[in-house]
Design goal:
- The protein is an alpha+beta fold.
- It is built from eleven helices and ten strands.
- The protein has three domains: about 170 residues, Sandwich (Jelly Rolls), CATH 2.60.120.10; about 45 residues; about 60 residues, Orthogonal Bundle (Arc Repressor Mutant, subunit A), CATH 1.10.10.60.
- A hairpin with a 2-residue loop joins strand 5 and strand 6.
- The termini are far apart.
- The model has no long low-confidence stretch (mean pLDDT about 80).
- Pfam families: HTH_18.
- GO terms for molecular function: DNA-binding transcription factor activity; sequence-specific DNA binding.
Length: about 300
Amino acid sequence: MSNSKLTLDLVSQVLSKTLPHQIPAFVGQAHDSSLFLADYDRYNGAQIREHENQFHTLEIMGINSITPHKRRMGDYKTENPLKGGEVCFCPAQDGYSLDWDNPVDFTLIALDTDITSEIAEARFGASQLTLIPKMLGEDIYPIKEIINIIRQEIALGYPNGDLFSESMRNSLVIAILNKFAIEPVTLTNIDNLSNNKIKLIQDYIQEHLNKNLTLEDLAKLVHISKYHLCRSFKQATGTTITDYIISERVKLAQKLLISGSLNIAQIADDCGFHDASHLNRHFKLLTKTTPTAFRKNCTNLT
């Protein structure tokens, strides 16, 4: 787990000073406190006061938000209309302020700087990438899509487990580095994992499907970083670790549905799913049927 210095209290204190008199419609943080998310609905014409970020900040305007504004991020200044769907990034230590006129919806993401540097080093071999303040109206895929997944995970209590949450956080950081770093970012070369190490990881997963698996635990098995693990596992198997684990959990659920009399909730727990609805969702995605229908069909065939 991360030793993140980003805490809910710290971000809340900063937001209460920079966005006074407004309570977020939704607020939450990643399982390891490395990311903080706040949604604001219909925030009236106001001002984000001048402040110096202690963390990287990402701002996503609501789809229907169009309003004149003045924005300053470090040396970057603009007085163009805010448009729905725009993404704005402000690195830590850069001064930041924003004025606008009409009610707007927006999401604020705060990212821990140490985690960002750690991922930059592992992914691109450069922990000191220079990030610049910048607005993007286009070419923002997959930032918003990842944030929507992260929001859902936080709201539901991380039903897909720590490993999935961490993978989504890492994907967001990598997308930010790709979009907002001055230097061109290129992947560092990695050594392929041997077949024996891949099998060691897969065997460990099989033996712990009912547990909350983490990237850190799997990486320790083969003595590599968790970021190296994600890339090398997909390179070797053609699938991500998260997708592999979900697939194996669904296969185990199929066996239990055929061979036993456990109810769906018990099977979900034995297979490492958050609850029965979580099992139902992934089971249907992979098999095109529900666990109940699968069991009934198997019973009819015997």
